[in-house]
Design a protein that fits this description.
TIM Barrel; 314 residues; eight-stranded parallel β-barrel; 8 strands
Length: 314
């Protein structure tokens, strides 16, 4: 098993769609060319940002195949593995391997819901995936309000130390205290794995607190600035990293404003404004956003210097 370099920005990319809600694969190729050219170490395909859970099995594979071809080995391709039970997860994992994925981001499943969660449940699930495919696995700790799970210390340590395929964790609790606790548990584990932030609301702070990289939906836009922020933080230049984050924050707040589920449509609106996408279509039951959201996104892009303001009439 080849372990990819995950120490950097991994952009969870959007999926361009046609007016009939079908995946726009030529549009995806153009978009990925734009993202990869900005210095990311990876792209995450078929994750929430890319509406992966809303796609059929056949669509997921077609999207992933197109992405792998477009990236052409220039960045790690992480495939989202979002299933509801073990046998389905194994089928999807084999599909991802056949399509050329370099790693899997293993989403929490409904069986993980509720407390207490016996460590054997998530362990058996991840171990079965590891046995089925020879691909690196990225754990996914996600706040329960978004359908995820916060692993207790015993479970997290067992997943890291007990499954050799586990190479990283995406920590997306959106809680700085839980984030630090997770970091401390990982430092006590026998095996070293990459600590990735998934907290779009405190990306810069995550780097200060010990994250080595980020796997985030916000990196689907303004990607170059986030790559530069990460590079500055890893070099110990926190003043420069903080300056970049201060510039990025209004756009992040516009994209991830309540209700958070609309962030995918908002990302697409921003990318249309930048000329990167042709359409901001999202697949139902997701909804398009209104003019208030568009105006806020446009203003943030203008303030970032990524978009020119419309000329004022005479």
């Amino acid at each position: 098993m080849k372990t990819p370099d995950l120490n950097g920005i991994i952009a969870a990319t959007v999926l361009p769609m046609n007016e009939d809600y079908s995946p726009d694969l030529p549009g995806l190729r153009r978009y990925l060319e734009w993202v990869v050219g900005q210095g990311v170490v990876g792209v995450a395909i078929n994750v929430d940002t890319g509406e992966g859970p809303h796609l059929s099995r056949e669509e997921r594979r077609a999207v992933l195949e197109a992405a792998v071809d477009a990236v052409g080995g220039r960045a790690t391709v992480v495939a989202g593995l979002a299933a509801t039970y073990t046998a389905q997860a194994l089928e999807l994992a084999r599909d991802a391997r056949a399509a050329g994925a370099d790693a899997l981001l293993v989403f929490p499943i409904p069986a993980f819901a509720g407390q207490p969660l016996e460590p054997e449940v998530p362990y058996a699930y991840h171990a079965a995936i590891a046995d089925a495919v020879d691909l690196p696995l990225i754990l996914f700790q996600l706040q329960p309000a978004l359908g995820g799970v916060i692993f207790d210390d015993e479970t997290l340590a067992r997943l890291v130390d007990g499954i050799e395929s586990v190479v990283a964790i995406k920590e997306a609790s959106f809680d700085a205290v839980k984030f630090v606790r997770t970091r401390d548990v990982l430092r006590q584990c026998r095996r070293k794995v990459t600590f990735l932030t998934g907290n779009d609301n405190f990306i810069y702070e995550s780097f200060v607190l010990g994250a080595e990289g980020a796997l985030i939906g916000f990196a689907a836009i303004a990607t170059d600035l986030q790559v530069r922020m990460h590079q500055a933080a890893m070099a110990g230049n926190y003043l420069e990293a903080a300056r970049l984050w201060d510039q990025l924050l209004p756009l992040e707040q516009a994209i991830f404003a309540p209700p958070v589920r609309n962030y995918r449509a908002r990302l697409k609106e921003g990318l249309v404004m930048l000329g990167v996408l042709d359409r901001a279509v999202v697949r139902p039951p997701l909804l398009p956003v209104g003019q208030t959201d568009r105006d806020r996104i446009r203003r943030a892009l203008i303030d970032l210097g990524l978009l020119q303001a419309a000329p004022v009439g005479d």
